[in-house]
Every structure is written in structure tokens, then in C-alpha cells.
Amino acid sequence: MIWLALLFTAAAGWVLLRPWLRSGPVIGLCVGFTAGAAALSLQLLLYDLARIPWRRWTVLGPWVVAFGVFLYKRRPARPRWRWPQPMELAALAFAVVALMAWVPYERLMPLNEWDAVMLWMFKGKAFYLDGGVAPYLRRAQEFLANPAYPLLVPLYSTFLYICVGAPADHAAKLLSPCFFASLLGGFYYLLRRFGSRPVAAVFTAMLLGVYMLSFVAFHYAGYADTAVTAAIVLGAGFLYAWWREEHHADFALAALFASIAAWGKNEGQFFLAGAGALAAGRLLWRRQWNWRLWTRLAVFPLLAVAPWVAARGLYGIRRPGQLSTEIVQTNVASYLPTLKALIEHAFAPSVFNLAFPMLLLAVALHRRAGLDAKFLLLPALVAWQMLGVAWVYITGPISLQWMIGSSLDRVLSQIVPLALLSAAVVFASYYDRAEARLAAPAPPAKAKKRVR
Fold first, then answer.
1. Is residue 348 part of a domain?
2. Quick check: is 180 in a domain?
3. What is the pLDDT of residues 84-99, one digit of tens each?
4. Coil, strand or helix: which one is 440?
5. Exposed/middle/buried for 4, CB within 10 Å: 0-12, 13-18, 19+?
6. Which pLDDT tens digit goes with each residue over 124-142?
7. What does the mean pLDDT of the chain come to?
8. pLDDT band at 329 (very low <50, low <70, confident <90, very high)
9. How many domains, in total, are found in the chain?
10. How far apart are CA 4 and CA 61, in angstroms?
11. Is residue 256 part of a domain?
């Protein structure tokens, strides 16, 4: 039942994305898992607010109907098979080795991180046993768990428990690896949009080789970081694709995944604000008044944020702990040193590999690679998230030093894939131009003048 529920999630997301996403079934299921998990968790919250009971048939029924309509109207096109090139085979071999190294650990994957248990997994189990969110949220201030965090991960865990029929922790532990697979599939798909297959394969293998990403996905079982990371990369990637190619489908996907990031974690709300402002600014600058674009830009964030805001107001949810005026003044005065510490840690030779130094190199060389100023959207979103993380740290209700020491690597791991995607886009442009020069016919040699 666990594997069927996970596959059902991916298929539901693929059906949801089908009007805009043009891909084969593998990429569709990978990218669809993030969208499906967000939709199913939001469905449970809406059901609870509407007093609809959580039963298998009530939750799965609408999606079964959607599957039937999807299969009746069209069948997924079979992608053409192409034999992989040597560079792709090397990248695939590296990916297999990296994943196999995690398999023994995944079998024993612990759910013993305090935050993972109290802030995320405990909520999902309580929701399932109570049959709704109300009993827990009404007493949320009694528990050592931040009740103001968005509920994508806890409610999706509840969905898995509903499918299994019991609060099975071994089912919830699979969330992070599945979101990690969704991140890899979306990363590869975006790079194939911007470059060749070998470049996409190599940089996806590099992403898989970033130690902290794998550590968060497998060791920190139960956290929401991998989910919000996948949504941020997909939201930023599709937003850049829209800036670059002006396809309305990319705009819809960008708005959707940016909204999913906001439903996943508080850092995702900051990303939604930045991405939404960039999208709205571009529409205004280009004087595009297409009602479909503006509707998607308004409706998707509203669906992701408004139900949770309503639930928080209904049950009186507030942030735990209050900062004194002295602590606030001290922390705000520490903003620049905190930002400096974040940047130094990001660029130090560490578990992030060379993603952030490669980002700076990409910014410096994007013109030589044939890219215009539109490329700067991706580095700008990286910088925006760094500023947001620093602001979250200094406004938190807990000691600044403790927060940085306990979560810096994990929070920066949310930004690493976006930094690597930026570098990959520049390298892909270089690679394509080099391939074009090699494939171009040589200019005819000039005839020598005969000397009499």
C-alpha cells in the first residue's frame, strides 16, 4: 500500500500538470510527485475546513475520476529512445553508485531528529489519529512543536497513513527520498530545456553528488527541506523558461511550484514573494494584460496560502515565544554579520561542493556563453533566498547562535540546487555553441594568386 500510495501521488501530480507540462512518463511522474503531494495535503486541509471526513474513498475518489478522464481523452505519448552517449553513461554510473551507497542507510533510516519528530512527523500522526487537524491545533500551544509551520509534509504523511490504514512511520520516512527523486527529475528536465542531454546528465549527477542534499534527503527523514527545495528549483526554472521563451505554460508551472514552496515551509513563502514580484514586474514592464496570466499569478498563491491562513485564524495559531525589545534590537543589528556568516559558509570548501563558486563564475561569463540579461533572474533568486534566510535567523524566537549552528547546512541546502542550475545553464550554452562550431562546415580556402 505504501508504494501504491507513492505511485498514486506521482500519477495525480502528472495528471494535474498535464495541461502545461510536456514530457515523457518518467519525468512527468518525477515532477508530478511534488505537485501531487502538495495537492493531496491541501485537499486534506480543505476537507477538514469543510467538515468532510477523511476516508479513502472521499480522498481518492476525485482523483480516480480525473484519471479516467485523462485516459479517455488522451494517451501519454511514448518518447523516442536514444542510446546514451559516453558522457551520459558516466553520469548515469555515478548516479547509480551514489544511490547504492545510500541504500543500506535508507533501510535503517532513523526518525530520531528532534525537529523532524516534533515539528513535522508528530503532527501527521496526530492528525490521522484525531481524524482532522482541529483537535491538535486547538491545543498546539501545549506542545513543543511550532504550530505555525505550513502543513504540506505533515498532511501528506497523514494521506499515507490513510492509505496504509495505520500511522506507519516507515511510510513517512520515504517522503524525503521521494522528494529528492522529484528534485533530480525536475533538474534534469529543466536542463534538457536549456541544453543538451550530456550536459543535463552530468550536472544532474553533480547535484546527486552534493553530500548535504543526500544527507538531508536520507538522514534528516521527516524534514520539509527536500520538499521545499524541489519546489524552489522547479518554480525558479520554469520562471526563467518563461522569461526566456515566453510560453504561457511555463508561467503557469512557475506560479504553481512557487506556491507549493510557500505551502511547504516558511522559507518557501519568501521565495513566493520574490518570484511573484519578478513575474508581476515583468508583466507590467511588457504591458501584458492577458487575464489568464494574471489569474494564475493570483489563484495559485491564494490556494496555497489562504486555507492555511484561515486555519491559523480559526484555531488561534501563533508563533511560540516572544522576543524582548532588547533581543530584537540585538538581532537586527546582527543582520549583516549573519549574512556574512551565511555567505562565508556557502563559499567555503564544504559539503556544498563548488556550487556557489560556480554560480559566481557563471554570472561573470554568461555573456561570453551567449546568454543575455534574462539569465540574471536565477542568480537574483539565489541572492533573494540568502537575504531571506538571514532575515529568518535574526527574527526567530530562539538564540541566533544556536539557530545558525543547528540548521545552517540544512537551510543552505535548499539554495544549492538553484545555484548549480544557474551554473549549468551557462555551461550548457557554452557546450551548445562549441558543438555548433564543430558541426559548421569549414570555410572554403582562398585560392592563391598565380605569380607570372
1. no
2. yes
3. 566 556 656 666 666 6
4. coil
5. exposed
6. 888 999 999 999 888 877 7
7. 83
8. low
9. 1
10. 15
11. yes
Q: Give the list of residues 6+ apart from residue 77 with CB closer than 8 angstroms, or none.
A: 24
Residue 288: how many CB atoms within 10 A of its CB? 12
Residue type, 135: P
Cβ atoms within 10 Å of 343's Cβ, excluding its own: 14
pLDDT tens-digit map of 172-201: 778 888 899 899 999 999 999 998 888 898
Residue 68 belongs to some domain of the structure: yes
Report d(CA 191, CA 195) in Å as an integer. Answer: 6
What's the rounded Cα separation, in Å, for the pair 318 and 213?
31
Residue type, 278: L
For helices 377-394 and 266-285, the axis angle rounded to 10 degrees is 140
Residue 78's pLDDT is 53
Matching residue, cell 493531496: 40
- Are the CB atoms for 411 and 223 separated by under 8 Å? no
Helix (H, G, I), strand (E, B) or coil at 353: strand
Is the CA virtual torsion 279, 195, 422, 12 positive or negative?
Answer: positive
| Helix, strand, coil percent content, the chain, rounded in steps of 5 | 75, 0, 25
Which residues are registered as beta bridge partners of 353?
350
Distance CA 322, CA 320 (A): 7
Q: How confident is the model at residue 435 (pLDDT cuts 50, 70, 90)?
A: confident
Closest CA to 214 of 31, 423, 417: 417
* Short-list 135, 175, 136, CA closest to 153: 175
* DSSP per-residue codes, 253-318: HHHHHHHHHHHH-HHHHHHHHHHHHHHHHHHHHTT---HHHHHHHHHHHHHHHHHHHHHHHHHT--
What DSSP element (H or E) covers 200?
helix 197-208
Grid cell 513535522 — which residue?
Answer: 120
Is the confidence at residue 244, as pLDDT, over 80?
A: yes
* Residue 40 CB neighbour total at 10 angstroms: 25
d(CA 215, CA 337): 27
- The residue range of the domain holding 207 is 2-74+84-323
